[in-house]
């Protein structure tokens, strides 16, 4: 394969491993988001709960909603937890004292939600479309069938992968900045490695394809492959470390992007979501059996 990092990008430290801290049994969760380095929120058919993982036996408490929640994202700049449910509603739990919001984005069950770095906008993704919500103006921009996965490249700059391929949009002007034809039928998730300016697209067949946004026009930078398929992908806060998971529960940590896959570390069940803590020291896997917490070593 082609190393996805630009030639000028220093190599990351190879040999990083995951050490299992504990498995927390709690079936029914679908997604999760770190609210701090010690508090992890999870969402599922019983609403949203927060776990304090700073203690040996994590304490958990409800976060004020019992609705069936499909996805969530935490916006540190606003101290806001954004929730997406099966009916296409996007709403918030506020921890800043400001009034919450409740928006019907009209695109069906929300599969994923992601917020831009400044916390002003969120992108809600369903199996049918992407909708961007401006949290300051409450303006909604439904992007039709342009995306099945989305990732923020910066404040107001959104990459989507859909039937037309990879596209990058400026949300201020609603103008398309980049368009790269491609097949998105297998896409599971999209994310962004900020340090090398690389978009990573995870496919259900296990392939993770890379495009360099540092080049004009953006160029393909090859791919890596997660054996046994791919169910989740996450980028660490350092902007260079990538975690992938298979439906069988094997998690791999990539830092040198070698074509030889790293050895897997097993989670407690099928991995539904992967999330790095804000300090990059922990990785949480939301699984069919609960939550698996790992420490990064090396």
- Total number of domains: 1
The number of strands is: 28
> What is the terminal-to-terminal distance?
25 Å
- Let me know the CATH homologous superfamily: YVTN repeat-like/Quinoprotein amine dehydrogenase
Strand portion: over 45%
Q: Could you tell me the radius of gyration in angstroms?
A: 18 Å
Number of helices: 0
CATH topology: Methylamine Dehydrogenase, Chain H
Secondary structure elements and pairings:
Elements: E1 17-25, E2 29-36, E3 39-44, E4 47-52, E5 59-62, E6 69-75, E7 80-85, E8 89-94, E9 102-104, E10 112-115, E11 121-125, E12 130-134, E13 140-142, E14 149-154, E15 157-162, E16 165-170, E17 175-180, E18 187-193, E19 198-203, E20 207-212, E21 219-225, E22 232-235, E23 242-245, E24 250-254, E25 265-266, E26 271-276, E27 282-287, E28 290-297
Antiparallel strand pairs: 1-28, 2-3, 3-4, 4-5, 6-7, 7-8, 8-9, 10-11, 11-12, 12-13, 14-15, 15-16, 16-17, 18-19, 19-20, 20-21, 22-23, 23-24, 24-25, 26-27, 27-28
Short description:
By secondary structure, this protein is mainly beta.
Give a verbal description of the structure.
The chain is mainly β. The chain has one domain (17-297): Methylamine Dehydrogenase, Chain H (7 Propeller), CATH 2.130.10. Helix content is 0%, strand content 53%. It contains no helices and 28 strands. Strands 1-28-27-26 form a four-stranded antiparallel beta sheet, with no helix packed on it. The radius of gyration is 18 Å and the shape is globular.
């Amino acid at each position: 394969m082609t190393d996805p990092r630009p030639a000028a990008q220093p190599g990351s430290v190879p040999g990083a491993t995951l050490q299992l801290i504990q498995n927390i049994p709690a079936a029914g969760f679908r997604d999760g988001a770190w609210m701090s380095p010690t508090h992890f929120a999870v969402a599922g058919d019983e609403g949203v709960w927060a776990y304090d993982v700073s203690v040996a036996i994590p304490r958990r408490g409800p976060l004020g909603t019992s609705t069936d929640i499909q996805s969530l994202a935490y916006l540190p700049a606003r101290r806001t937890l954004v929730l997406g449910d099966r009916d296409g509603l996007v709403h918030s739990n506020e921890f800043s004292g400001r009034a919450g919001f409740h928006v019907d984005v009209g695109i069906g069950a929300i599969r994923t939600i992601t917020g831009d770095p400044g916390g002003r906008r969120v992108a809600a993704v369903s199996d049918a479309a992407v909708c961007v919500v401006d949290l300051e103006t409450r303006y909604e921009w439904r992007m039709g069938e342009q995306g099945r996965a989305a990732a923020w490249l910066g404040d107001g700059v959104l990459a989507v992968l859909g039937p037309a391929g990879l596209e990058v949009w400026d949300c201020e002007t609603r103008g398309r900045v980049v368009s790269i034809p491609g097949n998105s039928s297998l896409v599971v998730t999209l994310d962004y490695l900020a340090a090398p300016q690389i978009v990573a697209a995870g496919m259900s067949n296990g392939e993770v394809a890379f495009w360099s946004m540092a080049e004009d026009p953006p160029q393909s930078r090859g791919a890596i492959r997660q054996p046994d398929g791919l169910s989740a992908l996450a980028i660490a806060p350092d902007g260079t470390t990538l975690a992938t998971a298979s439906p069988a529960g094997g998690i791999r940590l990539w830092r040198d992007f070698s074509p030889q896959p790293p050895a897997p570390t097993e989670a407690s069940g099928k991995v539904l979501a992967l999330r790095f803590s804000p300090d990059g020291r922990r990785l949480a896997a939301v699984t069919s059996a609960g939550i698996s917490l790992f420490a990064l070593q090396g």
